[in-house]
Amino acid sequence: MRDSLWNLRDYRLWFTADTSDVIAMTFRSFAIPLIAIALTNSESVSGILVSVEAVLVLVLSPIGGAFIDRHSRRKIMILLGMLGMLFAGIASLLMLANRFTLIILTVLMVFFGLLQGLLGGSNDAILKSLIPTESFARAQAVREGRESFVGMAGDAVSGLLYRVAAYMPFMASGILYGVEMVTAIFLPDDTARLTARERRPSFLQHFIEGWRWAITKKKFMQITLVGSLVNIALTALTVGAPIMLAARRTDPVLIGLLGTGSGIAGFLGSLIAAKILQRIATGRLLTFTFSFIGLCFVPMMFSDGYVVILCCTTAVGLLLPSLNSGLVGFVFGKVPEDMQGRASSVFETLLGAFSAVTPAATGFILKINHGFMLLSACAFLLVLTATCITCFASIRNIPTPNLWNSTDL
User: Fold this and answer.
1) pLDDT tens-digit profile of 204-241?
2) pLDDT (tens digit per residue) in 145-172
3) How far apart are CA 243 and CA 305, in angstroms?
4) Which DSSP category does 8 fall into?
5) Which domain holds residue 208?
6) Fewest Cβ atoms closer than 10 Å to its Cβ: which of 3, 4, 309, 311?
7) Keyword set for this entry (predicted)?
8) Which parts of 13-142 are beta strand (E)?
9) Total of domains in the chain
10) What distance lies between CA 275 and its chain's CA centroid?
């Protein structure tokens, strides 16, 4: 069973398309704050620009989720790759022509936000229709390993590309979006599920149905609450460290190594994630991981040196694969197939309700004296709150994966 996943042609195609999408977003996400700093020399403006896309994704994801559940997810993936390639190509050409301005960068962030918010959930939503249900948890674990590997190499490669030329991350991103588009073309047609219902509900009914389903699931909402608190903390430091270092005129390659360190730790953590999940109940793992993350933030409350930041952000990545595999596997392994797009959009919307504006707030905090250390203290308090909530919520009782079938969502 462990090897059967890679024997599935559809899974290999999906994995290639999804990985191309993830790396493409990594390249352009790395370049955006650095380009903003170069154009404006302002940490606050850089943070606001990062928030532009995040806010649009937050607002549009619920609409996108309902749209994805009502249309062919394969065709939406093709459209996502095509438009991503177009937008990234336009950015590259404008930079090559020395026509790139702050206004153009802002407009591009709006376009990418529309793209990701309305179409980005198609990759996640289509997966459950491509593989057997019993393979879903393993697919999530494989995905965590992939995310860690991309984190390990993606930012470092982005830094090297940016050092060559500012347009290179966008050019590479455009090529990868093209790979996603071409690969998605060969995925199986998924329109059969759309004609299965005798009476298809309206878009509004479809939209409301997804939210009504989600908010009635107790553990789903508890996971979303504590996850959003930790997500804000991680977003603040993940965005804040590069902006702060870029303002210091730190070498882009060194900035990229922050992601490499986290990626290496995450990749190593993904190798033992399966064993950890089988031996430690998911609820207990949640409490332990949150506590560990909080401890990792403590040194950065007293120092904003590069080595301290590198070591602390690297350590944070060790247990994230186990945590994410457990929680995401538990949640979406129990979500019905026809609800995948809407459940994912509700989850992402609620999870990112505040983290979307976190980069903007981060930029302003960084302008304060010892701003990064203050940011780390705020992140610590958020994680501490999440840990306390977890200790008293029903999610602390989520068992190991072999007992998930007997556990309600």
Assistant:
1) 777 777 778 878 888 888 888 888 898 889 988 888 88
2) 787 677 667 777 888 898 888 899 999 9
3) 14
4) -
5) 4-406
6) 3
7) Cell membrane, Membrane, Transmembrane, Transmembrane helix
8) none
9) 1
10) 24
